Amino acid sequence: MALGASQRLHDGVLAVETMTRFALAVLALASGVYTYLGVRSLLDGSPTAVFFAAIIYSASVSVAIYAFWSYMARFYPHVTTYTGRTAMLGVMALGAAMIIAMSSWLNAAALAGSAALEQHLAETVEDYTADLDQAHQNALAAQSLLPDIQRASERFAQLAASERQSGALTGTTGSGSVVQLLSQMSGQMKELESGINASREQVTNLFNEGQKRLETMRTLVSAPGAVAPRADQFSSEVVALTGVIASLGQTSIAPSIRRAADDLSLGFIAPVADGGNADLVNRQDQVMETVRASVAAQSKVLSQAADEILTRPPVPERRFVPLSSAEAVLRYASDFIPAWAGAISIDLLPGVLVFILAVVHGAIRKQEEKLPFAERITAAELLLALEVQRAVTANGVNLENAVAGAETESEALEPNNITSIDLKSRTRDRSHEDR
């Protein structure tokens, strides 16, 4: 039974030898084709130079993969010592690493390069969308001060009107120094209000332009066709969008509000009281001092609000870096694990065949070691032994003594290394000795 099983394993190894070579050749050819597609995207120059350079590189990769796995399939299964197996495994690991370095990542670039480039463009769109939103928010932050400025302007205008019509502040109607001062403060607040409104319109126009640029970029990411031309147009849109974001950063009116708020208190100039008598002059001075305090308080509030806006982090400067398909596959490798698995499997699948052959040959050796030497000889060895027997008998040699001597020597030597020719030569030598 054991001999039959061992023989069937031998026959199986011989039967799949052609298939093994065919599989190695097909896998090496497939790896070479995808390597060609991957390396072509990395080369620059004339189309002819790129074509021949990619062909030579991919052909070298195919030959290297086929030769490496052919050597491993031929020698590894027959190495039986622990040291030899360890050394062969080390060589296999080194060769696998070199194959991945020179071929697998280019295969992955051919399989998923376009998708990786589109993902790079999509993530760039998301980054620039966030930058545009941040720049827009920073530019509009000063708009939050508009209600406070409007209320202050209306309050000063109402006080001026009340003083003019009913003398609500000084007790004397008419357009005197107090009315003049209140009207002046109301006018300054209206100037700030007008500046903020003008800034809002400019910010809105810039933001709308940025949105159009982003929409074009999103269209380029998902558009059909080759990704390289789309990436070039995408770069042009990025440059334009960067300019829009920079303009938004420069249109913030917060610095202007901060300076205007300081001018309200530091540059406050009250007119000289123009009352007709000392009592009116005194009352005008008191009201103007109250207005001064109110203006100082309003200036402080505006300055603090403007400082909060100015302390916001500015939009960081972002630089778009175009990538090749191979670079994109490496950067976003975690998002394309199936493509990487397929690319590596094409190159390293022959290693599975090598281990299958190693297991089969190991099983054959174990089965043959359990059999007596007489049961391990082949039909050819048996025929040679019969020829030796006839030759010995014809020469009148004692066959039993010759066979006993041959068996003694065969037990002292490795059985697998004894051939029929060696047995024949030993028998002839002993026949001469008997004579």
Automatic annotation (TrEMBL):
Bilayer-spanning residue ranges: 12-37, 49-69, 89-106, 339-360
UniProt region (Disordered), positions on chain: 406-435
KW Cytoplasm (keyword) present: no
Keyword tags: Coiled coil, Membrane, Transmembrane, Transmembrane helix
Biased composition (Basic and acidic residues): 423-435
Keyword Coiled coil: yes
Coiled coil: 182-209
Taxonomy, superkingdom: Bacteria
Protein's name according to its UniProt entry: DUF4239 domain-containing protein
